TrEMBL record:
<dbReference type="GO" id="GO:0033617">
    <property type="term" value="P:mitochondrial respiratory chain complex IV assembly"/>
</dbReference>
<keyword id="KW-0496">Mitochondrion</keyword>
<keyword id="KW-0999">Mitochondrion inner membrane</keyword>
<comment type="similarity">
    <text>Belongs to the COX20 family.</text>
</comment>
<keyword id="KW-1133">Transmembrane helix</keyword>
<dbReference type="InterPro" id="IPR022533">
    <property type="entry name" value="Cox20"/>
</dbReference>
<keyword id="KW-0472">Membrane</keyword>
<dbReference type="Pfam" id="PF12597">
    <property type="entry name" value="Cox20"/>
</dbReference>
<protein>
    <recommendedName>
        <fullName>Cytochrome c oxidase assembly protein COX20, mitochondrial</fullName>
    </recommendedName>
</protein>
<feature type="transmembrane region" description="Helical">
    <location>
        <begin position="62"/>
        <end position="80"/>
    </location>
</feature>
<dbReference type="GO" id="GO:0005743">
    <property type="term" value="C:mitochondrial inner membrane"/>
</dbReference>
<keyword id="KW-0812">Transmembrane</keyword>
<feature type="transmembrane region" description="Helical">
    <location>
        <begin position="32"/>
        <end position="50"/>
    </location>
</feature>
Length: 117
């Protein structure tokens, strides 16, 4: 009897932007690119509606893309790093709580014993 096999999905190749940036697995890359493209459209179209100069509007659109993408990228990466630091501090605190609980090195035990004296 042949065992029923589940259909295997072929492995997905990650989507790489310009062949270097793995948008799917890099934190903040997707959001930065999306906001940058939206900023490009808004800046280019807004400049075109005000001046009716096509070439200059394209230049403004590219500049808007670069500025908005980099701004979103640095903001998101800063918040991501800050969150990782907070997680590491919490993880160390939990580890120390488990390690020192009910020993003479437990800080809560020292606080309780000084309050009851």
């Amino acid at each position: 009897m042949a065992a029923a096999r589940e259909p295997q999905e072929p492995e997905k190749k990650p989507f790489k932007l310009l062949g270097i940036l793995d948008v799917e697995n890099t934190p903040c890359a997707r959001e930065s690119i999306l906001y940058g493209s939206l900023g490009s459209v808004v800046a280019g179209l807004g400049h075109f509606l005000m001046t009716s100069r096509i070439r200059r509007s394209c230049d403004v659109g590219v500049g808007g893309f670069i500025l908005v993408t980099l701004g979103c990228w640095f903001h998101c990466r800063y918040n991501f790093a800050k969150q990782r630091i907070q997680e590491r501090i919490a993880r160390e605190g939990i580890k120390n709580k488990i390690l020192y609980e009910s020993t003479h090195l437990d800080p809560e035990r020292k606080i309780k014993s000084s309050n009851s004296s």
